[in-house]
Amino acid sequence: MGLAMTAITLGTLSTVTLAPMPSGYELAVSIDGTEGSLERVEARPSSEWNLADGRLNITAIGTQGAVRSPFSYVTLPGYWVGDLVLTFRARCHTAPEVMGRDVCAIFGWSDDMHYTYVHFSNFTDAIHNAILKVDGADRAPLPPAAEPRAELTGAGWHSFRVERTMADGMIRGYVDNSDTPCLVARDPEPWAGRVGLGSFDDLASFDDIRLYVRTDRTTLDDILAPGAQVRQLATGFVFTEGPSWDAREGLLKFSDIPSNRINTLTPEGEVGVFVEPSEQTNGTFYDARDGSLLGCRHWARDVVRYAPDGVATVLADTYRGGKFNSPNDCVLTPTGAIFFTDPAYGLGDRPSEQSVEAVYRLDPSGEVSRVIDDMTKPNGIYISPDGRWLYVADSIDQTIKAYRVGADGSCSDGRVLGELRAEEEGVPDGMTMDTHGRIYCTGSGGVWVFGPQGELIGRILVPEPPANCTFGGRHLSTLYMTARSSVYAVETRATGFMPPVTASGAE
């Protein structure tokens, strides 16, 4: 998983002079064409591809999707990248005299509604021979940063190279080993994602595909403290969850759901009890305004505020007359509003009174709004440092989704930020962030770390499957992880991000 060197071999190797290794990059994927199968790529459902003569071929164009976008493409699963160089050879089977014939290079793909692509063609207008973005609506061109040149000429094979850098959003497309790009544009909001190839609406063949990733990208070594090791701080619990660092008391508070209590853990390793019984409180979030603790109570099916003495005040327990399923995790925003997830994990044998497993927003006034209803099993949740994006983990789909937060607190334009799929036990669950906007999400095998735009940095491996994490300690640089029977920690160079709440007073 991730960016390990992998060779995907499909069919018979073509005779071709490969482009030299780009400076500062390393080979991540090679589709050369020896033996293999189409199982290593994923085709858009309505298009048809085959493997013949050592090449990947579009054999049926398929039908248009929900928005105007390329009809036929494949993506490379298991590679979620930001900065990249993609090289390949392709031949469009449409006659050269037909204007608008094309092949496409795709990147930043999270689903059929969200990606960017370079449209190489023999004809230039606003949407042909251009760099375009599919962002929840019909594809739209990015303004060209240089005069486009249409170079998909003739009936033969061409070589292509696409470069994308995240820091400046620049995208460049080259044809036939030219040193000068024929297409250049800047994406003001680039995202990491899968890479792919295809065509808008033509039959085409592809060969000698190479994906390169940066060698100087951020790694876990840049984030973890020198010599840092994951260490067990306490054990003997049943199922630990919901860690929050109490800055006033200088200790960690965390849930042990089946034991029906919220515990405390001092830096010296002393375990105490904060609340018992806790109505099977799961996720918690510390409110620095008054030292209180927000809690999502599974069994009581509500969201509460625990005063520093442990007394609970119910903030919300219904939506449109029906009880919540079992609130799971929450985050406090700078306005004082609370976003929380409501999957059905804690319902037990009780019937659901809600039509979906959703995400809600609780205003300081007490008004509850359903803001997200298109997820399968919403779980962990956090908000970006600039307040523009809400991140939610989906435990069934094994993804993190990012939603744009409007001025009114509404959430829209949900897209997959990252995939968390591995063989080890565990699912995407609780999450936290650092001040650089990096996302730390528990999942298979440990804590997955993503860059702000979704690029996978790596995994912090944990001895037990973790369910949640938070930053704490004097400098907010210790990453605490709740994992089944234990609480673990690792020292980092990062500083945890706690949303600064500017609204006066806790409601």
Can you walk me through this structure?
This protein is an all-beta fold and 507 residues long. The chain has two domains: 209 residues, Jelly Rolls (Sandwich); 272 residues, 6 Propeller (Neuraminidase), CATH 2.120.10.30. Helices cover 1% and strands 46% of the residues. The chain has one helix and 42 strands. Strands 1, 2, 4, 5, 7, 12, 13, 14 and 16 form a nine-stranded mixed beta sheet that branches. Strand 19 and strand 20 form a beta hairpin. The longest helix has 4 residues.
Q: What spatial form do the alpha-carbon principal axes imply?
A: elongated
Q: How big is the Rg?
A: 25 Å
Q: Average pLDDT value?
A: 92
Helix content: under 10%
CATH homologous superfamily title of the largest domain = TolB, C-terminal domain
Low confidence ranges: 1-18
**Count of separate structural domains:** 2
Strand content: over 45%
What is the secondary structure topology, with strand pairs?
Layout lengths: L5 E3 L16 E7 L10 E2 L4 E5 L2 E6 L11 E4 L8 E9 L9 E10 L2 E8 L8 E6 L4 E2 L16 E7 L5 E6 L7 E4 L7 E6 L4 E11 L5 H4 L7 E5 L4 E7 L4 E6 L4 E5 L5 E5 L5 E7 L4 E6 L4 E5 L5 E5 L1 E2 L2 E2 L6 E3 L5 E5 L15 E5 L5 E5 L5 E6 L5 E6 L4 E7 L5 E9 L11 E3 L5 E5 L2 E5 L5 E6 L6 E5 L5 E6 L2 E6 L16
Parallel strand pairs: 1-2
Antiparallel strand pairs: 2-16, 3-6, 4-5, 5-16, 6-15, 7-12, 7-16, 8-9, 8-15, 9-10, 10-11, 12-13, 13-14, 17-42, 18-19, 19-20, 20-21, 22-23, 23-24, 24-25, 26-27, 28-29, 29-30, 30-31, 32-33, 33-34, 34-35, 36-37, 37-38, 38-39, 40-41, 41-42
What is the structure about, briefly put?
With 507 residues, this protein is an all-beta fold.
